[in-house]
Specification:
Strand content: 15-25%
Order of helices and strands: EHEEEHEEHHEHEHEHEHEHEHEHEHHH
Radius of gyration: 21 Å
Organism: Litoribacillus peritrichatus
Number of helices: 14
Protein name: Glycosyltransferase family 4 protein
CATH superfamily of the largest domain: Glycogen Phosphorylase B
CATH architecture of the largest domain: 3-Layer(aba) Sandwich
Distance between the termini: 12 Å
CATH class of the largest domain: Alpha Beta
Strand order of the largest sheet: 3-4-2-1-5-6-7-8
Largest sheet: 8 strands, mixed
């Protein structure tokens, strides 16, 4: 199959949508399909056209004016369809949707973001506008049941399917890590990894309070991420007397994350809203069990008591209890970690996700 992916966001910029589009495209190529990515040129220093892991990438200078944006993008996509025989267009993010109206091939859309969940609560007028945008797509995918239901709430009548995010198991796996040594963390310590942007939706301040409440002498925390809530997080830790147990790395290149995860014993997802967390799946593929909140797509990747522990959102008490229970039961940590690794390999590899995506996309195209 020949597919065009359309996304305003794409590497080298960092984020969940960027990772999803890139990894899904690479997996489709591995499965024998032809994939082109059309993305906005965000930096004039980047190549306008290149091939990345078999994926043809086209970076296009698009106007901030909505009419000009839609006109140029539509014309480019239809030209690619006519000249190269692409069979479907797969959109990521709502901004490109209008530009894909009346293309001569089926259009599918993946609904990624938590901001969509906020928009559907804003009343009938907003819902009507959202439905009008979504009706351009013949089919919609989403990486959480919550986003599937939010899509339906707009009044969209087409097929809507849950498709999980995935993980590159060829890049994320247990490795020998020197990070504990570099950070001065004892080998005997119990280490929790927080790989999150430090922002409100990720629930990180509840986790900061949980660290203080857990009050475990062997507990250390590695924080890989930055954001608006960092100062508040640090204040909670400082006032709780845990400064020497929490190690801030700031933003970390995704290529280095296997070493970060492999330095830990557990990874924590304290989110208030979340799809099937890519960071959570990457931690699982590195052999870590998860502690995560019972929101969005997190219960899809955490089988409570099998691959990790589910807790309620906004509960420092439950997060602390989960940390303490694992800190004091290392054999359980080992068992949960083995289960996590197996689940990541067999249920959530990008090749598995790509096969399902292609099958449903092909159904739209026939």
């Amino acid at each position: 199959m020949k597919v065009i992916m359309v996304s305003n966001e794409f590497p080298p910029s960092i984020g969940g949508v960027q990772t999803h589009v890139y990894e899904l495209s690479k997996a489709m190529v591995r499965l024998g399909h032809q994939v082109a990515v059309v993305t906005r040129l965000s930096d004039s220093a980047l190549a306008i056209q290149e091939v990345m892991d078999g994926v043809a990438v086209f970076r296009v200078k698009l106007s901030n004016n909505h009419m000009l944006y839609d006109f140029k993008l539509h014309r480019l996509l239809q030209k690619m369809i006519d000249k190269e025989g692409y069979q479907a267009v797969h959109i990521h993010g709502m901004r490109p949707l209008k530009a894909c109206k009346k293309l001569s091939v089926p259009v599918v859309f993946t609904n990624h973001t938590s901001s969509f969940l906020k928009r559907v609560t804003k009343g009938p007028k907003v819902l009507h506008k959202m439905k009008k945008q979504l009706d351009i797509a013949q089919q919609i995918f989403a990486p959480s049941d919550e986003l599937v239901e939010a899509t339906k709430k707009t009044g969209y009548q087409g097929p809507t399917s849950f498709i999980s995010n995935g993980v590159d198991i060829n890049r994320f796996y247990p490795v020998k890590s020197e990070l504990r040594k570099e950070l001065g963390i004892p080998e005997s310590a119990f280490v929790a990894v927080l790989a999150r942007r430090l922002v409100e939706k990720n629930g990180v301040l509840y986790f900061a309070k949980a660290i203080v409440k857990a009050n475990q002498p062997d507990l250390h925390v590695i924080v890989a991420g930055d954001g608006a809530d960092r100062s508040a997080f640090e204040k909670i830790i400082t006032e709780g007397g845990c400064t020497d147990k929490v190690h801030f790395l700031g933003g970390v290149d995704n290529q280095k994350m296997p070493e970060v995860f492999s330095a830990g014993d557990v990874s924590v997802l304290p989110s208030l809203m979340e799809a099937t967390s890519i960071a959570g799946l990457e931690a699982m593929a590195c052999g870590l069990p998860l502690i995560g909140t019972n929101v969005g797509g997190i219960p899809v990747i955490i089988q409570d008591g099998e691959t990790g522990i589910l807790v309620e959102p906004k509960s420092p008490e439950q997060l602390a209890d989960a940390l303490v229970s694992l800190c004091n039961n290392r054999p359980l940590v080992t068992r949960l970690g083995e289960n996590s690794l197996n689940s990541a390999k067999h249920d959530f590899s990008w090749d598995v996700i790509a096969e399902k995506t292609i099958r449903l996309t092909f159904n739209s195209a026939t």
